[in-house]
């Protein structure tokens, strides 16, 4: 298993074990995209108390519930359909309703959720994370809403729902998973201090960034 995957897998399971031991529940926000796929597949065989897992999504595309572009479809096909997390503890974003209504409904879902235990995020080649894009609204202010309706994303489909930077930051741990040669420029911009969306994710304990060594 590549090092990024093995380290990420251990960090996720360690976070779950700690949360379950201390609070009896593990609240996890999933990233979409290609980088987490292999990690999610590895989680199928993890030894953990799945009944204590609560799963959310950092963003979603506004397409039909079975569209393969949906993050929830990818997570289901690679991992969630194979484990015994109770169905009512899998909180998918209803993107099929359109960005405005789906953002509203998911905000209601998150109303009763406190601090996430772990949030997984990726990095796009343009510097975006979740569906927070450069030059668009990120919801970084402390009083920002939990969810944002994205109506004009620069990548298809244009309509998406994203958790705001402020809500993503309300997590005990945040891990960025970054792989692929196409991300090199975005990594360099981030390291140089450019104001791109990942810089707006600012949990109390900072973020962990797992990057393929070839990109450093």
Automatic annotation (TrEMBL):
<dbReference type="Pfam" id="PF01182">
    <property type="entry name" value="Glucosamine_iso"/>
</dbReference>
<dbReference type="GO" id="GO:0006098">
    <property type="term" value="P:pentose-phosphate shunt"/>
</dbReference>
<protein>
    <recommendedName>
        <fullName>6-phosphogluconolactonase</fullName>
        <ecNumber>3.1.1.31</ecNumber>
    </recommendedName>
</protein>
<dbReference type="InterPro" id="IPR005900">
    <property type="entry name" value="6-phosphogluconolactonase_DevB"/>
</dbReference>
<comment type="pathway">
    <text>Carbohydrate degradation; pentose phosphate pathway; D-ribulose 5-phosphate from D-glucose 6-phosphate (oxidative stage): step 2/3.</text>
</comment>
<feature type="domain" description="Glucosamine/galactosamine-6-phosphate isomerase">
    <location>
        <begin position="4"/>
        <end position="206"/>
    </location>
</feature>
<comment type="function">
    <text>Hydrolysis of 6-phosphogluconolactone to 6-phosphogluconate.</text>
</comment>
<dbReference type="InterPro" id="IPR037171">
    <property type="entry name" value="NagB/RpiA_transferase-like"/>
</dbReference>
<comment type="similarity">
    <text>Belongs to the glucosamine/galactosamine-6-phosphate isomerase family. 6-phosphogluconolactonase subfamily.</text>
</comment>
<dbReference type="GO" id="GO:0005975">
    <property type="term" value="P:carbohydrate metabolic process"/>
</dbReference>
<dbReference type="GO" id="GO:0017057">
    <property type="term" value="F:6-phosphogluconolactonase activity"/>
</dbReference>
<dbReference type="InterPro" id="IPR039104">
    <property type="entry name" value="6PGL"/>
</dbReference>
<keyword id="KW-0378">Hydrolase</keyword>
<dbReference type="InterPro" id="IPR006148">
    <property type="entry name" value="Glc/Gal-6P_isomerase"/>
</dbReference>
């Amino acid at each position: 298993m590549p090092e990024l995957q093995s380290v990420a897998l251990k960090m996720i399971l360690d976070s779950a074990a700690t949360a379950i031991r201390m609070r009896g529940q593990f609240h996890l926000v999933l990233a979409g995209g290609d980088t987490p796929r292999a990690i999610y597949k590895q989680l199928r065989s993890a030894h953990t108390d799945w009944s204590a897992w609560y799963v959310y999504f950092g963003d979603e595309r506004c397409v039909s519930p079975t569209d393969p572009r949906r993050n929830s479809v990818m997570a289901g096909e690679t991992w969630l359909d194979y484990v015994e997390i109770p169905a009512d503890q899998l909180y998918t974003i209803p993107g099929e309703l359109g960005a405005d209504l789906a953002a509203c409904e998911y905000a209601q879902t998150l109303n009763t959720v406190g601090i996430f235990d772990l949030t997984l995020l990726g990095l796009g080649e343009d510097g975006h994370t979740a569906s927070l894009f450069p030059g668009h609204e990120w919801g970084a202010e402390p009083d920002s809403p939990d969810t944002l309706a994205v109506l004009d994303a620069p990548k298809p489909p244009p309509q998406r729902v994203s958790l705001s930077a402020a809500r993503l930051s309300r997590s005990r741990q945040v891990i960025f998973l970054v792989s692929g040669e196409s991300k090199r420029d975005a990594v360099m911009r981030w390291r140089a201090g450019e104001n791109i969306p990942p810089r707006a994710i600012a949990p109390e304990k900072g973020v962990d960034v797992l990057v393929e060594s070839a990109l450093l």
